[in-house]
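Hey, can you fold this?
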Amino acid sequence: MELRHLRYFVTLAEELHFGRAAKRLNISQPPLSQQIRNLEEELGAQLFHRTKRKVQLSEAGARFVEEARQVIAHVDRAARVVSRVKDGEVGSLVVGTVTSEKRIVIRCLKEFSKRYPDVHIDLRSLGTAAQLLALHEGRLHVGFLIPPLDDANLAVEIVAREPLVVALPRGHRLAAQQRIPLRALAGESSILMPRALSPGYYDQIVSVCRNAGFSLHMVHQADNIYTALALVAAGLGVSLFPASMQDGKRRDIVFRELRPALPQVECAAVHDPNNRSAVLASFLKVVRSVARGD
């Protein structure tokens, strides 16, 4: 018994007319009649009562048609699931980021969730080294990292650029200025995340300060962005952050622009180009769309 036999049978059961059923099925009437006879022989039961004037379901046919409809519906549903998986509409997506507060990350996740509500998102907070290892081992679909990244086996797509700002405890002597000279941070107690967490970000901050003629006086380290903000709020030092981290609602921290304008911090979506995940392909389309401002 083949699925098409069930479709032929259900169509005839709905039309109760061989000519109309054959037309719906886009076949001629003789093959339809033959297929129905074959099905009845295989089942060992008459499914229809036929006369020259009409076709009626037999008692066996009336019972069988409900079962046949369920089988067809189940197969069609399974086919739709396979199609949606192929198109990246269902499944799981594992995303890594040093900080989930990056605006580009939030926008990408929001837009992707809106377009693909049936994809489960697993967002993980991981440092650069941990993300790169997870990407190579296939435990991560995509990571949001700050370049440069020295890994020729991974695809790196720049998706956002933003300036650096300085975070100061409210009441700090420099907070009255709207734009603070970078050189004014020389000698200030500074808070920075360890280089291992985000080498690209760390190196860029150290480099711009060195180019301005001084080295940061790092007195505290924070293992994540929230800890760094807490240390600033506690008055233990100042810190540099990407501009998207500014929060105007905070009463214990003020954010100020720097002058001269510093090189912008880049954010990249990093993935394994050999990963053929349809969900990853769908997510990357969304990321590129968001990055373009579509």
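Oh, and this one too while you're at it.
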Amino acid sequence: MDTFLTITWGAAKGIDLGFFTLRFYSLLFALGFILGFRVMKKIFISEKTPLDDLDKLLTYMVIATVVGARLGHVFFYQWDYYSQNLLEIFMVWEGGLASHGAAVAIIFSLYLYSKKVSKKSVLWILDRVVITVALAAVFIRLGNFANSEIYGNMANSSIETVFLRPTQEALEGYLDGGLLSVDFEATGEKWETDSMVYPQYKITLVTTEPGITDKVASRLQAPVKSILTNKDSDHRNFIFPDNSPLPQKVGPTTLVTYGYGVPRFPTQLIEAGAYLLIFLWLYLAFWKTSIKAQMGSLFGQFLVLLFGFRFFVEYLKANQVNFEAGMSFNMGQWLSIPLVLIGLFFIVYPYFKNQKS
């Protein structure tokens, strides 16, 4: 088979500042809102809209995005789990946000904003806010990539990616605090099957105390393959063929083993690129008077473009939850369909309205 470019995405989720870890996801999430705020400020100034309203708009947007996305994930994807662990619903920093939930919450919050603050039509504000939402979506998907989450199916492609963080977390959980670090090093070797090529990695485990390695080694000898491959195929990140060598002790606190990374579509980056193009399209379209005059048109285009693309990119993604395995369309696709239909309505309606008048 052909040789492919493999992107190895590291295990770190953030920057360790000693007293605090600055997570890449949080940083990118905030950056999306900051840049979106600057775009909206330019729009407000151009239309002589009070900037005090913009500060209030930011508050509405942040609350709606976080609350809506979190509740969307809880109810659409993992209610069985969260119904038994209600307090974890508030642990947003642990991950678990759904863009469809954010979309519904943003629309509702902007309705309240239009009534209580701007006193303008809700479509007026939606036509402008969706420009910044598309921009924020770019950074949120980059954050998902940083978190090694919402990745694609197993595939050899020109941009295949091996995500290392899930494997590190599996090892940390198994060793229950006895692990100081895990390092991954591509060896350049590959394991080739009839359908896939898997790049090999040297995995070095450093334990927390001298002398503990013997204990850890004995614990890892038999179950190492199952530790790293116990997930279903949708979420497997490393593979160990039957002839893989067992972990070897190479120092008083160090173990070395070898595994083959599972290459996947980096769908987070694909989505981020698409959302950037959608942002540019909406931003440029906004400054065209003919488009701006058709109230609701930009909002409709946003829904059709973003969630239409979301429907099709789902075919490249690994299922997020187990119940999706038996579905003709996964949850993300089912939730995208009504939003696309609503978008089509707002695109077509102005033309019918103009013809009648």
